[in-house]
């Protein structure tokens, strides 16, 4: 069912909403865990546990040594994140279609801004976005609404029903609710009963092009 109220702006999560980056994240995360004396995670654990930005998640994992762990992670991640970057099916076609229709588009990610922008530039997608914001760019990261405010700054579009926040995880949906925006879930598997009871999506799309076709 197509929405009757179309948005003016769409804010996209990056990792695993528009591109598949799990292999590089999983590799760097386990390299860091082992270097810091922790047991490595299974791939499934990485998928379920990696949600928040590093400054919000690493202190809980590594305590006072979290900045040391961050340096280890980044050194490993830099070696492979571009080589292992793969766009999701239909992602660029969706962005191209939405951009051509005049929608205001931005990225709001919990990936460190430097690496986020490297990946966007590598794919040649910067031309589609009005803003590209990663972890550390705003005063707080998702699910705090601060990066949403920064993404919309200067657009003349206020937070609210005119803004769709599009992502694949609970943190994205929580951020949408915290910002008073429309929460949109895009991933292959539909939400299960009870999965997003606290922060339910208003819309679910199986693939990127499904979203584009709805608009």
Description:
The chain has helices spanning 22-35, 43-49, 54-62, 66-80, 91-100, 113-123, 146-152, 170-179, 208-214; strands at residues 9-12, 19-20, 86-87, 104-112, 131-135, 163-167, 182-186, 203-205. It is an alpha/beta fold and 215 residues long. The longest helix is centred in the middle third of the chain and has 15 residues, at 66-80.
Question: Key features?
Answer:
215 residues; alpha/beta; two-stranded antiparallel sheet; globular
In whole angstroms, the N-to-C terminal distance is 11 Å
Secondary-structure element series? EEHHHHEHEHEHEHEEH
Radius of gyration equals 17 Å
According to DSSP, the number of beta strands is: 8
Query: How many helical stretches?
Result: 9
**Share of helix, binned:** 40-55%
Decide which structural class fits the backbone: alpha/beta
Shape, principal axes of CA atoms: globular
The fraction of residues in strands falls at 15-25%
Strand order of the largest sheet: 5-4-1-6-7-8
Mean pLDDT: 93
**Low-pLDDT windows of residues:** none
The major β-sheet equals: 6 strands, parallel
């Amino acid at each position: 069912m197509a929405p009757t109220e179309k948005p003016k702006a769409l804010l996209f999560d990056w990792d695993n909403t528009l591109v598949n980056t799990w292999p590089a994240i999983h590799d760097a995360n386990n390299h860091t865990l082992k270097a810091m004396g922790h047991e490595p995670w299974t791939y499934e654990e990485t998928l379920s546990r990696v949600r928040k930005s590093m400054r919000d998640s690493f202190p809980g994992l590594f305590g006072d040594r979290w900045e040391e762990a961050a340096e280890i992670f980044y050194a490993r991640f830099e070696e492979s994140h571009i080589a292992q970057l793969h766009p999701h099916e239909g992602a660029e076609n969706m962005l191209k279609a939405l951009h051509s229709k005049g929608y205001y588009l931005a990225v709001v990610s919990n990936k460190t801004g430097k690496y986020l922008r490297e990946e966007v530039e590598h794919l040649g997608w910067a031309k589609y976005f009005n803003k590209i914001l990663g972890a550390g760019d705003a005063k707080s990261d998702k699910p705090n609404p601060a990066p949403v405010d920064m993404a919309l700054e200067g657009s003349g579009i206020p937070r609210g029903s005119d803004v769709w926040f599009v992502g694949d995880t609970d943190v994205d949906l929580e951020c949408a609710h915290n910002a008073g925006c429309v929460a949109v879930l895009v991933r292959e598997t539909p939400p299960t009963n009870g999965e997003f009871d606290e922060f339910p999506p208003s819309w679910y799309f199986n693939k990127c092009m499904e979203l584009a076709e709805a608009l």
